[in-house]
């Protein structure tokens, strides 16, 4: 199969013709340069050889990701769209595009049909990162309301990858307003994607509509299907978490509420152990629903309400997470888990042991602002305000290297609020804004 042909395209500015390479199929492994141009949505950019005018020439083409067995078919006209859908739905491969598709269908590729180059770039990135575009589209619907509260002008969201000036990367959504991508990234963690996948994967197995076009309309239709069939599955586990949130906001340190809380926590543990014959390794079961709920409960509850049994379980839980999980791509989770583990040490073994752990952590990562923020938080907890203030003044103008280090500014703000230092709070806002601006961000 010929990968491209030489085509002459007319410049809309001067009317003269420029020669381009028009690709029929771009293979992710074989055509690295063209793959990168698709990811950057620049494959269809043309610069006139005569007047230098830059314009777009979008045409029908196919992107094949052989590693992940995905195919994205870009159609540039309604006629092309009808031909492609006829080939796929009716298995009519008589048209030229059908002849190309037939081989990929026979090889078991999952096929997506897209109508514009920006969506093609998005699909290519999703495939390249080993993600499921159905989960990404569901995330857009589920998180969209929250993001649009922050920016109500957003018309559409695209999956992308933010690249910061320190080389770190973050999955994110970028909003589109009047057809133009905005500069602000909305972070998307693996944990959120996992949570959505766990909640809906069981319904994907019984959803019979074809998935050639996985977009916002597909996601809305799928969520409607879920609403009609949610009683199909056992909801016992979800009932536990619902009970917890019903108590939130009214829970006091009363015997009645503590008894109710104990029953919820015990129910989660019981559900956990019933699911496995023996205490499982996190390596074997990934981050399961029960692990997620226990972790989420810890982040929501008032720690003093826990009893020693719960401290001991959660201490072991965090120890296993830190030992067995690779958080190199999610440093915020890693540092949050270390802080939670330190809190379990304090409640089980005392403040001195907790500070020893924190000192050891600091020796591993000196000048990490997240750890400095944790020191400030611990000093505040124990009313050692002078120590907290000294640390804040020492590190306030240090450069923030990672997003997760914003925890330092949260801790300093808590300190200033406690001491009623209003002028310093205003200065802190300025410093925080300047530090954010230093962390330049680009996109694929």
Describe this structure in words.
This protein is α+β, with helices and mostly antiparallel strands. Among the domains are: 1-130, no CATH class; 133-232, no CATH class; 234-305. Helix content is 55%, strand content 15%. The chain is built from 18 helices and twelve strands. It has helices at 32-39, 78-90, 96-106, 117-128, 133-150, 190-204, 216-229, 236-247, 255-274, 282-285, 289-300, 308-324, 331-349, 351-364, 369-381, 385-395, 406-418, 422-438; strands spanning 4-10, 17-23, 25-27, 45-47, 54-56, 61-65, 70-74, 110-114, 156-164, 169-177, 180-187, 441-443. Strand 10 and strand 11 (180-187) form a beta hairpin. Helix 13 (331-349) runs antiparallel to helix 14 and helix 15 (369-381) runs parallel beside helix 17 (406-418). It is elongated, with a radius of gyration of 27 Å.
Structure characteristics:
single chain; 444 residues; alpha+beta; 4-stranded mixed β-sheet; 4-stranded antiparallel β-sheet; 18 helices; 15% strand; elongated
In summary, what is this structure?
55% of the residues lie in helices and 15% in strands. The protein has 444 residues and is α+β, with helices and mostly antiparallel strands. Among the domains are: 1-130, no CATH class; 133-232, no CATH class; 234-305.
